[in-house]
Amino acid sequence: MRRADRLFQIIQLLKTRRLTTANLLAEVLEVSTRTLYRDIQDLIANGIPVEGEAGVGYLLRHEVDVPPLMFNESELEAIQIGMRMVEAWGGNELANAAKQAMIKVSAVLPPKLQTFNSLMFAPSFYQASSEFQHIDLLRKAAREREYLQLDYSDAKKAQTAREIRPLAIHIWKGTWTLLAWCELRHGFRNFRLDRIISISLTQRFVPMTKDQELDNFIEKMCQEHGENTQ
Fold first, then answer.
1. Which terminus of the chain, N or C, has less C-beta within 10 A?
2. CA distances from 144 to 139, 147, 168 (A)
3. DSSP state of 68
4. 2.30.30, 1.20.58, 1.10.10, 1.10.3470: which CATH number matches 130-224?
5. Contact status, residue 147 vs residue 165, Cβ threshold 8 Å
6. For the segment 144-198, what is each residue's pLDDT rounded down to a tens digit?
7. Bridge partner list, 160
8. Where are the domains of the chain?
9. Which of 33-37, 79-83, 120-124, 204-208 shows the lowest per-residue confidence on average (mean pLDDT)?
10. Distance CA 45, CA 65 (A)
């Protein structure tokens, strides 16, 4: 990481926390604490209102607006590939958003980067339409905490009707999968999007309990696989 990029990242990290230790900053930025202390002193010398001391932590005295640094080629390539994946596999709403985002990114690029084009692509012409036709509705339902009636076909072609609340959509072994709270099984369940037959909104509202949220599922998985959730 370029030093200028690192200084910019330190400011962004301090903007998102109240008091941040040098050890934590150094760990996130993958540098030594000695380097981190030197960076903090350079920020202060350049008028950035950082307060604190070694062994205690640091914070920004007030909000600081720092113009973003320009992308390098690797960063720009990562953005291009990510936007191409969203455009191909993210549903209509996010596909349009990805196109607009790339237009805005291109508008601020210097001339030498405006012609840069990654050779990694995410073609959509071979994708089964059944896997993507419900993404927009599922994203909206997860965001707005809406219950859905789901007609679903499992791996053995057995069809069931489920009342669910979508929590998140993730890609697993190349397949979009819906994580949801299932009322039929009264637990967390995963549903492959390409096996969903139909979806409809349900009028019934069921208050969620504290153990039925996405964070609870993540904590449960971490415990089962022996990973630290902190």
1. C
2. 9, 9, 12
3. P
4. 2.30.30
5. yes
6. 888 999 999 998 999 999 999 999 999 888 789 999 999 989 999 999 999 999 9
7. 152
8. 3-60, 73-114, 130-224
9. 204-208
10. 17
